[in-house]
């Protein structure tokens, strides 16, 4: 077994594998966080990240040093949707139509506002109820602290779409988190 | 601005994604419109609540271990996975990764005794990070008299800044960075298409001889002079990096901005 790093061909940039560890693996938590929120299940999320890292490793040669986190998150996202496509029957797939999910028009009453529940459990339940398209956008923004530009590049959407999805995600969350005795139920997705 | 427009822009405003003109328009609208101001306050609260660390799902240790080359437990992690094809592919991929990376890790583990190990890996990681878009430079200038004053008040020492364009290492900018808990000055030089990061921070000892190391294919040269610790990192060859270090150390060749 070669023991010396100098044995590597000089043209391979620092050997793909060694730099893979240094460049991609620091974003493991980010990858898992996104996968976990998309899959809503620990075991599925692990499968998604495993598969995504394998893909990332395979395509690492084609990664040219732009933002590694954005690159990896895009792979995680694509991996999630392609694995899901395999396991879900067509009928169960949720098509997201940006025109249908218009923001709810009614503002909560001031009394309802006081009841906005912001504990971890309520937030988690509300987030998990969002459709995937809204959930990935809000998770990338609030938990991964991605810019709109980064979100657009990860999800393959226009920046305008990112903006309106974020607005809708937050409006939906607000309705979910506002006391359930109000009319929030009306806006649940069937 | 109408409430209808504000409802969308409010979010971009909250995320600091608006240009100055739109920002101003929203600020004005929120001052005038109580309903939008209340909405804004609520969304800000929601946004803050989502920053709770408990919502961020960190990778489980098994997953991290499986991808950390020093661990010998990847097969155990693999068998726990539920989908056999993925698990098999994962195992195969891991073996491939292990084979590919083994030389580097042998090399790394051999150097564990070097002592400055964590420092070197920190420096190289920082160098790699700096190469990602928009991370390289805080101040972009080829003029040492612009770069040096830029550090004023940002550090508790005055970094030494000099342009080495005559030696073929043009200064292209500077950046604040952090290594091992210190705030450090990073100067960025170019060598053809290569980037050289030169870090400096105050040292406890007076001076120490140069020490050259390699880490994941990056060359690293450390030395201490006048109670300042210097570390140069780059993917240029060791001899070229050495040439750079000599040029930087040589006071006579170029004027130093003091």
From TrEMBL, chain A:
<keyword id="KW-0731">Sigma factor</keyword>
<dbReference type="Pfam" id="PF08281">
    <property type="entry name" value="Sigma70_r4_2"/>
</dbReference>
<feature type="domain" description="RNA polymerase sigma factor 70 region 4 type 2">
    <location>
        <begin position="122"/>
        <end position="173"/>
    </location>
</feature>
<dbReference type="InterPro" id="IPR013324">
    <property type="entry name" value="RNA_pol_sigma_r3/r4-like"/>
</dbReference>
<dbReference type="InterPro" id="IPR013325">
    <property type="entry name" value="RNA_pol_sigma_r2"/>
</dbReference>
<comment type="similarity">
    <text>Belongs to the sigma-70 factor family. ECF subfamily.</text>
</comment>
<dbReference type="InterPro" id="IPR039425">
    <property type="entry name" value="RNA_pol_sigma-70-like"/>
</dbReference>
<dbReference type="Pfam" id="PF04542">
    <property type="entry name" value="Sigma70_r2"/>
</dbReference>
<dbReference type="InterPro" id="IPR013249">
    <property type="entry name" value="RNA_pol_sigma70_r4_t2"/>
</dbReference>
<keyword id="KW-0805">Transcription regulation</keyword>
<feature type="domain" description="RNA polymerase sigma-70 region 2">
    <location>
        <begin position="26"/>
        <end position="83"/>
    </location>
</feature>
<keyword id="KW-0238">DNA-binding</keyword>
<dbReference type="InterPro" id="IPR014284">
    <property type="entry name" value="RNA_pol_sigma-70_dom"/>
</dbReference>
<protein>
    <recommendedName>
        <fullName>RNA polymerase sigma factor</fullName>
    </recommendedName>
</protein>
<dbReference type="InterPro" id="IPR000838">
    <property type="entry name" value="RNA_pol_sigma70_ECF_CS"/>
</dbReference>
<keyword id="KW-0804">Transcription</keyword>
<dbReference type="InterPro" id="IPR007627">
    <property type="entry name" value="RNA_pol_sigma70_r2"/>
</dbReference>
<dbReference type="InterPro" id="IPR036388">
    <property type="entry name" value="WH-like_DNA-bd_sf"/>
</dbReference>
From TrEMBL, chain B:
<feature type="domain" description="Putative zinc-finger">
    <location>
        <begin position="3"/>
        <end position="37"/>
    </location>
</feature>
<keyword id="KW-0472">Membrane</keyword>
<keyword id="KW-0812">Transmembrane</keyword>
<protein>
    <submittedName>
        <fullName>Anti-sigma factor</fullName>
    </submittedName>
</protein>
<dbReference type="InterPro" id="IPR041916">
    <property type="entry name" value="Anti_sigma_zinc_sf"/>
</dbReference>
<feature type="transmembrane region" description="Helical">
    <location>
        <begin position="86"/>
        <end position="108"/>
    </location>
</feature>
<dbReference type="InterPro" id="IPR027383">
    <property type="entry name" value="Znf_put"/>
</dbReference>
<keyword id="KW-1133">Transmembrane helix</keyword>
<dbReference type="Pfam" id="PF13490">
    <property type="entry name" value="zf-HC2"/>
</dbReference>
